[in-house]
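Final paragraph of the annual report: two paired records, presented back to back.
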Amino acid sequence: MIKTAETYHVSVLLNESVGGLDIQPDGIYVDVTFGGGGHSREILRRLGPGGRLFGFDQDEDAEKNIVGDARFTFVRSNFRYLKQWMRYYGVEQIDGLLADLGVSSHHFDDPERGFSFRFDDAALDMRMNKRAGMTAADVVNGYTEEQLADVFYLYGELKQARRIASAVVKARQQAPILTIGQLLRATEQIFAREREKKEVTKLFQALRIEVNHEMAALREMLLGACRLLRPGGRLSVITYHSLEDRIVKNVMRSGNAEGRVEQDFYGRIQSPLHLIYNRVITPSAEELEQNPRSRSAKLRIAEKTE
């Protein structure tokens, strides 16, 4: 088990994402993906004595990295409950929110969590919250063939989703699929050799998203953030794949996850947010060299309108 904040996860786009919050010394900020605490520590470094920071994480392992600072409050919860927890703490408005939606390297490197296909004998788990909820094994063995195909297509964008689902169902009829190796062997004949790693990555992504209800949680969190942000408050979000990036982009441009644009009488777009930059921010060549896992990261920053 990886236990230290330094090795838990390397913070991606650290200066760009925290800088995009335009930290006010006495402001109230939320880091909804606390993880190893790298972004939170940088926010605290820029806050004054009167500032406050709330850090969300549903993973009990993240508690080992809690920041010893009176200005910091750790919330062990899924960030989809952002509004409820802010109400609990008596916070009506916040000055900024940061989200790094990537899975921590800690999760990929811990065989017990079942996030990586590098560990053949590891259990198919993939839960961010180890205390509750279904596992990837529950999905693989309990969903119908049609349900599996939908998951693989919608969340993995796999063109051969139906063939993969059929292979999984056929394999589990012989014996339950409980380990990563069993899942890989059940599907290995489908993926072309030269594309195998990329396709398997998409397969694992699809299962992880389904297990953790990631898309629904992201929509709820972003809409809650839109309501909580004070006028002029900032939203800084790092995404890693097209599904989550599409939702973030839609909310920042239109105020809803579907991207429905509403206009006033004069044709002006009505949205609670406006983009600070019209382009996405990506890691520098130097950061990519130091942290190859950041290569797919995209940062978008928006500000709450008056």
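The closing record of the year follows.
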Amino acid sequence: MRLLFSLLIMALLTAAGPADDWKALLKAGKDTEALAQVRKAADAGDAIGLDWMGWFYDVGRAVAADKPKAAGYYRQAAEKGEPHAQWRYGVMLDTAEGVALDSTAAMGWFRKSAAQDFSSAYVSMGVMYSGGRGVTRDYAKSLDYYRQAAKLHNVHAFNEIGVVFAAGEGVPPDKIEAMAYFIIAAAAGDDSAQRRVQAIGSELGEDGMKRAVGRANVLSKEYNLNGAPDRSGLTT
């Protein structure tokens, strides 16, 4: 739950424009005042306002959590082209969270969001191809989408690429390569990657870990992780 909350709040808090005042109010603990302003924008049909209304009901901030209501607001924002809403509504469709299960429709929304370079949508598309949900399983496409998200500095994409190499999903198993990606994700705060670093690290030993760290440094340069991240950011 904490990871989901982090994903949702960071995707919203990095958005620019009319949401700036709402961010400041939330940061100041003025949730009710922020909700009132968001509701006013949503009632006027503003896509970002509708998206934020979905978020308030999604996480239960200033209102009782209500997944069906959240999905309804996200759907409205998604239809207006808001990329975060398109991604989050797709996730809800794929997990039957407040709406009926429809992985095929979910994939459609992920594609719309990814077309706007919303990095979490690329990760979700990778997950869908990896599991064969809403599409025919295709590990090569899955890895390609994870890499697209990694190029946009999405921390969870690095964890998923690590999983691909650890499990040998369409590639030869390679624990050093896997560990390198896990190290990058773990350093950025990804909980799953941190657990995997601890679990696999003991298997690799000191020499293996040195090689993995060296490879992680190379990957960091390849993905320009010291550069300015996109609006989704290298963050949880």
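The chain has twelve helices and no strands. This concludes the annual technical report; the extension proposal builds directly on these records.
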